[in-house]
Amino acid sequence: MFGAPQTMRNIHKQVAERIGTSIVRGDVLPGDSLPSEVRICEMIGVSRTAVREAIRILSGKGLVESRAKSGTRVRQPEEWNQFDPDVLRWQFDTADLSTYLVKLFKLRTAVEPMAAEYAAVSATPEDIVSIRAAADAMAIAESNEAWIAADIDLHRSIHIATRNEFFWPIAQIFETALRRSFTLAAPGDHRPRALIEHRRVMEAIAARDPKGAHRAMVELVVHAAGDLKRMHGIDPLAGVLTLGMSALTG
Prior knowledge:
mainly alpha; Arc Repressor Mutant, subunit A; Four Helix Bundle (Hemerythrin (Met), subunit A); two-stranded antiparallel ribbon; 11 helices
């Protein structure tokens, strides 16, 4: 069920990785009990100390709860810490690609235009320098990886520039959440257009133009979805495209 660790380094983290992935994948259903510590030790080939530490890690992420008489049970998904980087990664690694992209773009259409709008109002001079630096890094990127890193940095910097701490956790998950999507699109021929669109967002924020930043970000997200549909046949804005176009033209 859980698989075996590859090395002895950070063994408890590896055990947590395997159990966590198994839970998110649905091998153990919410409300069900995990095997006993002894059984997990036998299945994975590790010590009880490593298993206990792994359970403690998973409990901190909201995936499980341990009780003295009933053992360790899997909690309901709505109780999981969905912004935890590991939980997020396990969700993405076990979901099919279409489902993952639809969920991601629903988040992006709901949050990113507002983040750009708020950043145009609240960004500090240092925030604008960071956003501009990321846009410049995209322009000079010579590899797909450099392009992806700069693109992620720009979106993360915009969320930080809202100066609203409730947006910051979203910025923190972008390293995981956007990388898979950006990796699919990076080899395409859309970069010149995408670079212009990112610069429009950046310039609107720098100009303190919240409505312009909102429109520019909607355009960017809608076109990014179109690139994935054209390149891979996946429509990540299925069911939300009307909303996105309404915001774009409104």
